[in-house]
Amino acid sequence: MNQYSELLEGLLRQHYLTPLSYADRMRAQREFQLVKSIRRKAQRAKLIIRVCDKGGGLHIGNKIDYERKAAKYRDDTKAYQELSYNPLMEIFTNVTNAINVLKNDKQLNLKNYNRLMPKRDDVRLSYMYFNPKPHKVHSGTPLRPIMNTIKAVTRPISDFLDELIRPIFDQYNKDNTIIDGVNLIKRLEQYATDGHLKESTQFCTFDINNLYTMLPQDESIRILGDFLRHYVGERIQGISITTIQKLAEIVLKENAFVYDHKFYKQIIGGAMGSPFTLTLANIFMWHWEKRWVRRQKSKNEIYGRYIDDVFFTSNEPIEVVQQLLKDANGWHPNIKLESNIGGSVPFLDILLPNNNGVLHTSVYHKPSAEPYVVPFISDHPRYIFQNIIQTALVRAIRYSSTFEAFNHERRAIRLMLLFNGYPTTYIDKQFRKIFVNYITSNSILPLIKNEDEFFQLRKEHMKQPTAEHSQVEARIAQFEQNNTDKIVEELIPMKSSTTNKRKTKNVPDKVIIHYTHEKRFTTMKKDMHTIFEKAFEGYGLEAVRLIVGHRNSPNSERELIHKRPPLKYLTLKQ
């Protein structure tokens, strides 16, 4: 191991001490001065820089205006109670005591106990910040609250509950869940094929205001128990539903944070940034939307929800739909809707017009969206640029129901890439990879000229699972495998215990190392593999696989945006 450490240190010194080229050195100095200048101007003018909610890009706003909107948000929701002290120690004590009680009552086994118990030296108090919503400029650019809970005392419990429960929701509520744009398009195409899409069909959308923040805590925990008992019974992987509800209560009620040097406790809803909050919100909405789902099914209409955004179809008079939405606004005091009804509506990143009973779909760009992607001059691995182009082009293929719509989006993609410094030859090369079976090798431009060929290409891509769909299926498969493993452990406890002990003695089958990517480190991965093989040759570690990954260099967001409060507010005092 000492030899490997010495070889690795020598390799890193060699790479990092290699002088930069003159062009790179001048660029680094120029960009450093630019960042310093932006920071100074923002500080002098009392401006605040944040990432835009949805769509990326940076938003510069007046700090006083931000604070006014943040205060209004707290006042409108009544979800936060200001504290006169730092609550971190109190939360740590409450959580550790609660987990100890569950273990002593034999509600948690040792494995889960060790996973859920927070470590004193690692925990941090959560902190809140706000991201602006420039796509809602007509509403005065409201703010979305985000809570950083990565090192929160309850984060291990939140991760655990999310991993345990989200696959159950994915599996049993898939008919009413919109996974992504492709999923909705497929449902609409089937709806049209079945003869339900007519000239008078209305497409309707609504979003729920502040869903995460407005979840009623006790009611949500009760609904969680109802949901789990309805679909899986009294236990999940050996854990009782009552225990799961107690853990959920810890996540919701032991939630405090710091914002602008003040401490707050959340008394309604959950932290937007805590993994389990999303799952709990979905389950709460499963209960809320039951009557709507039954109504839509009885009329052969679509109802689908993507977190807090809902899409549904209707062939009833618009007055009936408006009354239905008005009634739904009164179903629960915490759930308020903002709706949009028409023959053409945007939903997620799709534009959905009903063209006289014919379904047309295309990519939708919010009016506030900027034509910005990672600039080609940026110091990122090459595959990042390839993925940007291919992802945008495949989305255009899948979303475009007409050849005309596809060509319009293809031209927009090319212009966006040129605007961000991508060379024409590089763009054409990536386009060719997508169109390879539909253009001739001697074609000057990578274009599909035949409408029938485009529809064949679209058909192929619509058959392939999207990344989001694959993630959902993987979660469900992992949950089913875990259930199977648990049953086997209970049936053959001795054999399982012996196997586990034997596994812990085995040498790890892989070693993972990360380094910060720089364009000049072209041989870094190869060199790391070489010294690994050299250092451990003859030690019987040939089966150990070295995985060399990388992290990206700090970008403009990390250089210009500072959200974290001073550590004195976040850590436990020694």
TrEMBL record:
PROSITE patterns for this protein: RT_POL
InterPro entries: HTH_animal, RT_dom
A Pfam match: HTH_animal
Protein name: Reverse transcriptase domain-containing protein
PANTHER family: REVERSE TRANSCRIPTASE, REVERSE TRANSCRIPTASE DOMAIN-CONTAINING PROTEIN
Reverse transcriptase domain location: 112-390
